[in-house]
Amino acid sequence: MAAESHHARGLAEVFGLDEGEEATLCEIPYRGAQPMPPAEPLVYRFYGLVLVYGTI
Fold first, then answer.
1. Per-residue pLDDT reduced to its tens digit, 39-53
2. Domain count across the chain
3. Model-level pTM?
C-alpha cells in the first residue's frame, strides 16, 4: 500500500527522510526481484511460500 503525499510528508519530517525517500513512500511496493511466476513447479511453490510466510 502506497502512502498518500501528505502522509509521506509527515513521516519524512518525523524520521528525517530526504525528498527521494519521501517519494519512495508514495510508490506501490514491489515484492520480489525475480519474474513471477518462476517456470519450474517446485520453485514456483517455494517462491509462493516465501512471499506469503516470509523467510526463516
1. 788 888 888 888 888
2. 1
3. 0.48
